[in-house]
Design goal:
Rossmann fold, 249 residues, two-stranded antiparallel sheet, alpha/beta, globular
Length: 249
C-alpha cells in the first residue's frame, strides 16, 4: 500500500499521519464530540477535491445549505461559488431517503453522482442513523449499504459521527467503527487548565499510519494538525496527567 496513489484529506498535517493520505475508495470515519470540528474536516475534504478537479458531494441530515454557507464563510470559503462551478454538490436529506436513493439504480442521486463525476463524498452525520434505526442488525445493514454503494461508484467517502456517551454503546453494537477502513478520533482535552483539541488516527486498514496523538487548531482556512502531544498520559480518557522528568545528580 505504500506506493498506492493516495487521496489528500485537505487538512494540513493530516496526510503525513495517514502515510500520504486516504486510500482511494475507502470509508473514513471521523468521530468526535459536538464542536470538535467534524464538519470542518468534511468541508476541507470536498473543497480540496474541487481544487484538484475532483467533484464532491456533501450530504447533510441536519444543516440546511444556508447554514453550511454561513459556517464555511466564517472560515474563508465561498461554498456557493464552488457549487455553482459544478465541483461541489450539497444534498439536504434524511437517512431513510439516502438509503432508498442508493438502493435504486436510476435514482436522481446516483445519476447526479455519475453525471457529475463525483469522486469524494462526505456524510454528516451517521449519528442520525442511530436515532432513525433502533435495531442493531438493521443499523449494521444500513451502514454496509451506504458504504458499499459509494464504494461501488469508486468514491472515497468521509463519514462524520458524533461521539456521546449516550449513543456510543448503540453505535458500537452497530459495528460502525469496525466497518470503517480508517477511524479518526477528535477530542477535547484539558491541559494545564486550558482546553485544547487533539486528533488520533486510531486505525487505518491496509496501511501503516502515525499513532501519536496530535494537537490541531481551527481558524481561517480550516483545521491544521500540529505537533504530537508529549510528556502526557490519559489523553484518550480526557484525564490528562503531565509526566514530571526528574534529574538525578
Amino acid at each position: 500500500m505504500a506506493d498506492l496513489m493516495r487521496v489528500s484529506s485537505g487538512v494540513p498535517g493530516l496526510d503525513a499521519m495517514l502515510g500520504g493520505g486516504y486510500i482511494p475508495q475507502s470509508a473514513i470515519l471521523v468521530r468526535g464530540a459536538p464542536g470538535t470540528g467534524k464538519t470542518t474536516f468534511g468541508l476541507q475534504f470536498v473543497l480540496d477535491g474541487a481544487r484538484q478537479g475532483q467533484a464532491g458531494l456533501f450530504v447533510t441530515f441536519e444543516e440546511f445549505p444556508q447554514s453550511l454557507y454561513r459556517d464555511a464563510a466564517s472560515l474563508g470559503w465561498d461554498l456557493a461559488e464552488v457549487e455553482a462551478s459544478g465541483a461541489l454538490h450539497l444534498l439536504f436529506t434524511s437517512p431513510e431517503v439516502l438509503l432508498t436513493s442508493l438502493a435504486t439504480p436510476d435514482s436522481n442521486l446516483l445519476r447526479r453522482i455519475q453525471q457529475g463525476g463525483v469522486q469524494r463524498v462526505v456524510v454528516d452525520s451517521l449519528s442520525h442513523f442511530t436515532r432513525a434505526v433502533r435495531d442493531d442488525h438493521a443499523r449494521r445493514r444500513a451502514y454496509h449499504q451506504v458504504i458499499s454503494a459509494f464504494r461501488r461508484e469508486g468514491i472515497t467517502a468521509v463519514y462524520l459521527d458524533e461521539e456521546g456517551r449516550a449513543d456510543y454503546t448503540r453505535q458500537e453494537r452497530g459495528g460502525l467503527s469496525f466497518i470503517a477502513d480508517t477511524l479518526i478520533m477528535l477530542r477535547y482535552l484539558e491541559i494545564d487548565s486550558a482546553i485544547q483539541r487533539a486528533l488520533l488516527v486510531l486505525k487505518m486498514r491496509g496501511s501503516a499510519h502515525n499513532t501519536s496523538i496530535h494537537r490541531y487548531t481551527i481558524g481561517p482556512g480550516g483545521s491544521v494538525v500540529g505537533e504530537p502531544l508529549t510528556g502526557l498520559s490519559g489523553l484518550l480518557s480526557g484525564l490528562v496527567e503531565r509526566h514530571l522528568i526528574s534529574t538525578v545528580r
